[in-house]
Amino acid sequence: MGHSAHDVGGPRPDHAPMDGRGVLHLIEDDLSESWIEDWAGVGVAAIEDYLEKHLAFLDFLEDAAAS
C-alpha cells in the first residue's frame, strides 16, 4: 500500500515508545512474577496524581468563591 498524496513525511520507525514517556516496553517486564503488581502500582499512582490535582482545583474554587 502506498503513501497518500498528502503524506509529506518520510518513513516512520515501527519501534516507537509504547507508553508515551520515551520508554520502550520490554517483553521481559510482562514475564516477571511481579508484572501485575507493577502494572497496578502505575495505575494507582496515576489515579492518585489525578485526584490530587482535582482536589487542588476544588480548593482553588472554594478560595475564589470565598473572596
Describe the structure.
The chain is mainly α and 67 residues long. The chain has helices at 27-31, 35-66.
Query: DSSP strand (E) fraction?
Result: under 5%
Q: Residue-averaged pLDDT, rounded?
A: 80
- Count of distinct strands: 0
Give the biggest sheet.
none
Secondary structure: helix percent = 55-70%
Helix and strand element order: HH
> What distance separates the N and C termini?
62 Å
CA-based gyration radius: 21 Å
Tally of separate helices: 2
Low-confidence stretches: none
Structural class: mainly alpha
Write down the overall geometry: flat
Secondary-structure map:
Blueprint: H1 27-31, H2 35-66
Entry summary:
The protein is mostly helical and about 70 residues long.
Throw out a few tags for this protein.
67 residues; mainly alpha; 0% strand
